[in-house]
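In response to reviewer comment 3 from the previous cycle, which asked for concrete evidence that the modeling workflow produces usable outputs, we include below a single protein chain processed end to end. The sequence was submitted unchanged, and the resulting structure tokens are shown without manual editing.
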Amino acid sequence: MKTTVSNGEIKRQNRIKVAKYILEHETVSRQEIAVALGFSMPTVFQNVKELIEWGLVCEGGEYGSTGGRKAKMLKIQKDFRYVVGAEISMHHIRLMLLDISWNILDLEYSRLTYENTQEYYVRLGEMIQNFVKRNKLDGKNSNKLIGVGISIPGIIDHDLGVLRESQALKAANVSMRHFTQNIPYDFYCDNDANNAAYAEIENQQKDTVYLSLSSTVGGAIYLGSELYKGDNFRSAEFGHMILVPQGRKCYCGKEGCLDSYCSSVALLESPEQSLKQFFEKLDGGDEECSRRWEEYLDYLALAVCNIRMIFDCDIILGGNVGGYMEGHIRAFESKVAKYNRSDLDTSYIRLGNYKEGSSAIGAAKHMVDKYISNLDKYIGN
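The workflow returned the following structure tokens.
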């Protein structure tokens, strides 16, 4: 049966496409939009006119003359709306305030140990509300807040609305409603690695594997422009691939998991040492840190080669460790090349852009996308 799409729906979808295209580019002209989206100039002019009237888009200067009338630069009005990203971990919560162009405006990192209790969920809601109030986005300014994107470490069943399992939080079969019931704003929730990948993968039309290297090792897989979740929402559990049979004990109960060798914890000399302190000592020539780092890179190179053999696509090294690897990427690529002599071009390896908070940023980006996709619903609010 053929589905008929109304003219109103076509216009709505076109407006969303134009808004998203402008959001993804720092500045862009009407002509560039028309070419990129395959729209006629009248269609672009009409949609841009409406987006300017709504306050989402503004004109910001002119392009250089090419002999005719100078094209106007279009860009997102950054202070149009704001969004909060919240990253939950076993002992902390990270809160970020971003504008609609994903610029970080405020950051709060506080201790809050997870417990599946009403007291925890009430405290979580209070901390988020206080963060919103501190940034003066309550009361008469509440219309400026799009909502809260929430990142949780674990396997989330969105159909059932359940956190099925979280080894990081030592929890299972927890209703997602518990996390959101004390948050009086629109919200979005997803797994931490999925959110981090969404923050880091700039072109989601290109097949990419994201490897998250933080206090635990996880990942996400984008294939055919979509996140591959697997039959049981367990895809990209790279941290629990067996790297060394009968190796180090992993917190999951198995032995020799990648997590035991390539989490940030594997680098630290003590629980009190921060990753920043580790890299400061490493760059200062500390012998013990150098030994740990070399061992870490060897195991990571083996894992990356295996992932490349399976997916044959770009691989992004993200998470907290990925954010510190910029000065060490050439040494790492050399190790990868030794394991994979049939694939000597290592340009498929890229580093994440964020040292910390990528999953909170990704959750916030999801929230912005949800808002842009429902502009007609939200406009005027």
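The chain has three domains: 7-76, 80-196+359-378, 206-355. We consider this sufficient to address the reviewer's concern, and the full set will be provided in the supplementary archive.
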